[in-house]
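Here's what a typical entry looks like (Phosphomannomutase):
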Amino acid sequence: MKFGTSGLRGLSVDLKGRASALYATAFGKYLLETGKARAGDVILIGRDFRDSSPEISANCAGALTALGFRVFDCGNVPTPALALYGLESKAACLMVTGSHIPADRNGIKFYRPDGEIDKSDETAITAQAAEIERSGKALIQAPARTEDHEAICRQLFFERNTALLPQGALSGLKIGVYQHSTVARDLLIDVLAHYGAEIIALGRSESFIPVDTEAVSDETIALMRRWVSEHKFDAIVSTDGDGDRPLVADETGTPLRGDLLGLVAANFLRARTVVTPVTSNSGIEAAGTFAVRRTRVGSPFVISGMEEAVAAGDDHVMGFEANGGLLTATTFEINGRKLRALPTRDCFIPMLAILSLAAARRQPLSAIAASYKLPFAAADRLENFPVETSAALMEYLRASDENLASFLQPIGAVATKSDIDGLRVTLRDGGIIHFRPSGNAPEMRCYVEAGSESAALDLLHSGLDRIRGWATAR
C-alpha cells in the first residue's frame, strides 16, 4: 500500500483483505489521538463502482465501528459530493476509489472533518498503521452498523451545482453524457438538464471502465467522435471513476485539456490567486488577471499551496490540476450566491464554466478553446511500467547533464530544466518535455508543449519511445 498524488492505492485483492481494515483503523486512531474526532462522532463512507469497492467499504466500516465511530454509508457518490457533505456536517470521510486506474487496483481517499488530509497526515497515518502491525495485535472489526445517507449527500451536491448559473443557462446546447461507470453519471444528467440542455445518455456500463481524463485513450476518443457524428452534439462530457476529474470533448469529439478547463473556471470564478502544478500549461500565467503559484503534482500539494496563499492574505483563492479537477480555498460569490470553499477536486464547476461560456457566446467549444491561445500541449502514459524501472530512469536522468543530454539527443538540445516534480526540460527550440513517474500506480507519464498540435504530438510520441527504448535496453 502506498499514498500517492491523491490517496492510498494498491491491488484490489489486498484491499479486500486486511489492508483496508488496517488503514481505516490507523486513520480512526489518528483522528482520536489528535483530537480531530471523538468516539461517537460520525464518519462518512462513499465508494465507486468497482467490484471490490463494496467489500473494502464494509471492511473500513467495521474497523471504524470497532473504534466507536458512527458510520454513515453515502453509497456510490462523487468524491466532491462526499467531501462537501463531510464539511457541512463536520465529519471525517473515506472514499473507496481507484479513480481512473484499472479495476484490479483500488484505493482509499481520507478526509478530516475540516477537509482532505495533507502529506503530514499521510505520514502520521502510515506510521500508525506500521505501529499496529508491529504490535502483532489482531485487528478488531465490529459488525458494520451503518445509516444510509446517499440521498442526503447527492441532494446537497445537486443544490450546490444548480445554484451556479442562471436558469436556462445551457438552453440550446445538445450534450452527450458518457456515463460508463462513473459515480457522477446520474448527477451529471440531472444538473445539465436543470439548466435547459438537451441531454442524451451514452455508454452506460455495469462493469467498471477506467477513464483517465488526463490521458484520454484512443478508444474513448474514437467513441466520442462517432457519437458527435451521429448525434451532432455541441459537447460530450464525462468524468473519471469517482467524479472528481472532468472530461469535456468539443463538437468534433476532441477532448479539451484539463488545464484549459481549469483556466476557464478561474475566469468564471473571478479568481485572484490560482494554484496549479508544474504540469499545467505554461501559458496560464499570461491568460488571466490572477496570480499563479506552481506546485508539485497532486491535490495535497495544491491544497498546501492554497493554504499558503490564504495565510499570506490572498482572497478568491482556487486551484486546479492538469487533469481539470478544481479546488476552492475561499468563498466565492457566483450568480448572486455564496459558494463555500471545497478544497478537494471537483469536476462540475469546470464543466459548467466552459459550457455556459459556449452558450453565452454562441460559439463552438473548439473556438472557445482556440481563443485562449495557449501553447499546444499533450500528455500520455505508459501503463504497467514497473515502479523500479521508473525510479531507475529518473535516477539516470538526474545523475548528470550528460546523461540527460544523451537521452534527449534524438529529440532536441536541452536549454533549461526543472526538478520540482519529475524532470521538466525546455528545449532550445522552445518545446517542453516533462518525464514523471505516477505517484501511486505503475505508470510513467510524459507531458509536452510545442508550437503546433502536430509538433506536440510528435514530441510526445518521441518522448514515450525514448522511455520504452531505455527500459528495453536495460
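Residues 376-473 form a domain with the TATA-Binding Protein fold (CATH 3.30.310.50).

More examples are in the samples folder.
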